[in-house]
Design a protein that fits this description.
Length: 351
């Protein structure tokens, strides 16, 4: 029996459904096979895969919305050094990459392999630019201690006694810094060269002793504030207000419109002036924000990296009409990655 057609013999006095003779002595009916979905197997598998990815990101985005709008306090984008213009630029880059992958597909269907490869290469470059900008943004967060960590990150929710204890502990660590880790501006060639393995240095004392001509005007002013901060933290009768002053000296919350995307915020905090201090900072709601931000953007970045790997492999092929199906499937995945970012950008950067 044929899977696509089946012939049924009939006798001479065959009648149709209404009892009329069909006029044929040996008539037959041909049944044609009709596929349920006019899709290739590759495209069907890609859609099934994307359906699981949609559920995955829907759960992540839904959880973020619940946490974001259910939290009693949530930092503003400029408080966590998040730049809306940089995020908008990255969105534009990713949208352009979706256009170039479509142009690569159309060129491949027209059997223009060299043109298709050019558009595919441009897609790869745009996706790489997206990841590069994201790495730049991550560096701005890392430089301010904004990242989830165990047992506790450098972010504290409020300037309380726990925060004061953390600042005091960090200052104690700075008084016993290995010689190899001493900041360049505080190095003493005659002393450090003769130091033994395991020797430590009090970098806070060295900062106090360094000559003014080796420091900028901003660093000189920050050195005076750091000396006052040490006295304040050392006071066992510290009050909540004092810790708020300490937090503002360490890393004041950036104001809207400041250069928070470049990693310097307002540029007036002690951590900004002396990055090696790495003192704990106060950002209300900062820990929850950091956890959700790096989780969502991190998973998205992994998906972008996977797409770039696929594009790099496809660049080794001859992208003619025979490869159009593979390019189309890769494009479907890339459009999904782009769509996810269209949801992430307003949620994380604008609200």
């Amino acid at each position: 029996m044929n899977a696509s057609a089946h012939s049924i013999p009939h006798d001479h006095d065959h009648h149709d459904a209404h009892g009329h003779d069909d006029g044929h002595g040996h008539g037959h009916i041909t049944l044609q096979y009709q596929p349920g979905l006019p899709l290739s197997r590759g495209k069907l598998i890609m859609w099934l895969f994307l359906s699981t990815e949609i559920m995955f990101f829907a759960a992540l985005l839904g959880s973020y919305v619940v946490l974001r709008f259910g939290a009693s306090v949530w930092p503003k984008p400029h408080h966590v050094h998040l730049s809306e213009p940089i995020g908008a630029f990255n969105t534009f880059v990713l949208i352009c990459s979706s256009v170039t992958i479509v142009l690569a597909l159309e060129a491949a269907r027209a059997n223009k392999a060299s043109v298709a490869k050019m558009w595919m290469l441009l897609t790869l470059l745009l996706g790489s630019l997206f990841l590069g900008v994201k790495a730049y943004e991550y560096a701005a967060k890392f430089s301010h201690g904004i990242y989830p960590a165990r047992p506790h990150s450098r972010i504290y929710e409020r300037p309380d006694l726990y925060y004061g204890s953390a600042v005091r502990a960090r200052l104690d660590e700075l008084r016993k810094v290995p010689v190899a880790s001493v900041p360049a501006v505080l190095r003493d060639a005659s002393t450090d060269s003769a130091a033994k393995a395991g020797d430590t240095v009090d970098v806070l004392k060295r900062l106090d002793d360094v000559s003014a001509d080796k420091l900028t005007a901003e660093q000189q002013a920050a050195r005076g504030r750091l000396q006052q901060l040490q006295k304040m933290v050392a006071n066992p009768d510290q009050q909540m207000f004092d810790m708020a002053v300490v937090a503002d000296q360490v890393m004041p919350l950036a104001t809207e419109g400041a250069d928070h995307g470049g990693g310097h915020g307002g540029g007036h905090g002690l951590n900004d002036t002396f990055p090696w201090l790495r003192l704990p900072a106060v950002i209300p709601g900062g820990n929850m924000w950091a956890s959700t931000y790096f989780l969502l953007t991190g998973f998205h970045a992994i998906h972008v990296a996977v797409g770039l790997l696929v594009f790099a492999i496809m660049l080794t092929w001859k992208l003619d009409a025979k490869r159009a199906g593979g390019i189309e499937n890769a494009g479907l995945y890339w459009h999904f990655v782009d769509l996810v970012w269209i949801f992430l950008f307003p949620l994380m950067y604008l609200f």
